[in-house]
Amino acid sequence: MTRQPLILSIVLATTPILAEEPTTLPTVTIEGERLPEPGVSHEETEDILGTPVDAGDFLRNIPGVSGTRMGGHGIDPIIRGQSQNQLNILLDGAYVHGGCPNRMDPPTSYSPIETYDTVTVIKGAQSVIYGGGGSGGTVLFERKTPRLTKNKFLRGKVGGGYTSNSETKELFGDITLGGTQGFARGIIEYQDGENYEDGDGNETRSAFTTQSGNLIFGYTPTEKTRFELSFEATRTDDVLYSGAGMDAPKADNDTIRLKYENEWGTKLELYHTDVEHVMDNFSLRPLTAPMKMLVAADSKTLGGRMSHNWLTDNDVEWTLGIDYQHNNRDANRLVGVSTLQSIMWPDVDLKQIGLFGEMLLPVREVDTLKLGLRYDRVTSEAARASEAAMGGVSPNKLYNKYYGKSAAEHEENNVGGFIRYEHELTNADNFLFISLSRSVRTADATERFLMANNSNSAIRWIGNPDLAPEQHHQIELGISSQKNRWNSNASLYYNNISDYILRDRAHAQAGILQNDNATIYRNVNARLYGFEWETQLKWNKKWLSGFTMDFVHATNTTDDRPIAQTPPLSGTLSFDYKPATWQIGGKLRLFAKQNRVDDDIKTGSGLDIQKTPGFAVLDFYGRMNINKQTQIKIGVNNVFDKNYAYHVNRANIDPFNPEPVQVNEPGRAFWLNITATF
After folding, report:
1. Non-local CB neighbours of 401 within 8 Å, separated by 6+ positions
2. For the chain, which terminus, N or C, has the lower number of CB atoms within 10 Å?
């Protein structure tokens, strides 16, 4: 804790130094549609179709992004076969680390999508600005409040939505009031969903209720100078899960943000997030287990980032900065509601301070070279590792039993970076690129320090305090082309990983002394490769069609077996008719069978449930502008009521509906959205 004031003081003190002798970046105006960028997706939330239950649900509509479903809320995204802390997910500049080791509440569960303005998905390691790691990609949920004018002192958006299958109801409002010197913005969102039915009519435990509020106060003394202070609260209640042995009566998050940027290119962001998560097996379901179990967890994160961007006389653009993140997690598992059964997170502190720099320079007038370098100093410790729970079992006792190591303060010095070269082909609308990158991801609190065992100690899930950080070495080759009527982009990537952090079972592997099927973590070598392809064709001014395809192949090369939870080959085919004031269209989602699985609990991890069959699902949608201020959207998902599950969905362990093997996706669902702006 003593380092935090020092680090923040360094950040603040550096601001005037970096601001000396600035060169203001020129204003660039781009006309026409955005040139497609391989591996990068930009989405405006006003274009949302349907009623996504959270940001993870929304992300699964983006090509190359999948997501794990455990219930109706808290879908955990997967990009290029990588997930969880292999992705950097920032909620308006802040990191939010959830309170459930089993990922009931990933960061995206605390981000109601209607409360954001834009979403950017950067696939792979294409930047060093947004934190260490990020080998699978970076997701930026951003709020961008436009500067108000004398003639436009009030701006707002209100609306609501309904989805038939789960009877999900949504209401939201976003109002900004102010003037040229500042503004106050208030955002609220409410969503309530019941259990949905899958394509076979089976009721899936998936109900939830969420509500969020956000107040943003801004001071805008000049066109390019801005201060923002925001307070955000998200409350999620009574969340049911078919893919877990517990439900979540409570999942709350409070976030405070402070932002500053000026005309010289200096940006500063500070944030504090506080997650409180409660899960149990009795308050929201009839008790079927031998006894009541309850877990109360806290996850607090303090962090910030300061960067400076400038342009030199020879048109080289530089970005230099420093960031800091401190996450503390503490969780107790109670049996009979009051007896300490295990210390799931033994007061874990993970601290990371990073220095980063990026450079973009023109080459031969038409080509560009982009370089990035990052250094991270990481420390971790578990203050309660020696504290005993039921039966005198402490986290250190289990760490020693399985790994021969006790928890101690752990330190890492990680270096990553990338080189990307873009070569223009026939003109500026056609280019290809090649990039080489190294990214290093440290183990998180669960992988390093988790202690979970049931009342009779027959089932254990134990973190490994001796894990080395993952080291990803990637090469990517891509091409982008835009013609009068069509545009297309594609990329190939190969990722060689040293010390991949594998969630596995204890089968007396090297360094693992037991053979009792406990869930453990260990380092292995791994290899991932795949491709992504998107193309869009404009038949005329009104007709538009699109096609996407993505694939990833993941292998644990140490043991020569597939890595679990890898999405199969998938794609989409869409057609849209877009006159001036309305639109109608359809999308066919296609998924191949996934035969490469790690589903044997006796010899592997057993994290894959089965070889998931392929499927095709058709959706229809439409929108109409009733007037300049009001828009209505309607549609039907899963038109033919197909019964299906994404391969990465959790195993169905609902004792009240045991027939499905996995948590299936919703069956046919009609939806309606209405939005009014002013």
Report:
1. 513, 514
2. N
Q: What digits encode the pLDDT tens for the residues 543-565? A: 999 999 999 999 999 999 999 99
304-363 confidence digits (pLDDT tens): 999 999 999 889 999 999 999 999 999 999 998 889 999 999 999 999 999 999 999 999
Q: What are phi and psi of 63, to 5 degrees?
A: -55, 135
Contact 413, 353 (CB under 8 A): no
Q: How confident is the model over 262-285, as a mean pLDDT?
A: 96
The whole-model pTM stands at: 0.92
Query: Is the distance from CB of 475 to CB of 434 less than 8 angstroms?
Result: yes
Amino acid at 258: L
Query: Which residues, at least 6 apart from 316, have a Cβ–Cβ distance to it below 8 Å?
Result: 359, 360, 361, 362
Helix H or strand E encompassing 445: helix 445-449
Both tokens of residue 494? 């190969």
**pLDDT on residue 677:** 94
Give the β-pairing of 486-505 and 182-193: unpaired
Tokens at 565, concatenated: 């939870």
- Residue 616: the pLDDT is 98
Domains with residue ranges and CATH for the chain = 3-576 (2.40.170.20)
Q: What's the confidence (pLDDT) of residue 511?
A: 81
533 contacts 481 by C-beta, under 8 angstroms:
no
Rounded Cα gap, residues 90 and 82, in angstroms: 16
DSSP 481-502: EE-SSEEEEEEEEEEEEEEEEE
Residues with Cβ within 8 Å of residue 464, at least 6 apart in sequence: 399, 402, 403, 405, 443, 447, 448, 520, 521, 522
Distances from the Cα of 333 to the Cα of 341, 399, 450, 575, angstroms? 6, 18, 11, 51
Radius of gyration of the chain from its Cα atoms, rounded to whole angstroms: 25
What single-letter DSSP state applies at residue 27?
Answer: P
In this predicted structure, what is the pLDDT of residue 523? 97
pLDDT in tens, 438-497: 999 999 999 999 998 764 555 789 999 999 999 999 999 999 998 888 899 999 999 999
* pLDDT for 250 beyond 80: yes
DSSP state of 606: -
Q: Name the burial class of residue 509, with classes exposed (0-12), middle (13-18) and buried (19+) by CB atoms within 10 angstroms of its CB.
A: middle
CA dist., res. 678 & res. 675, Å (int): 10
The DSSP H or E segment spanning 419 is strand 410-424
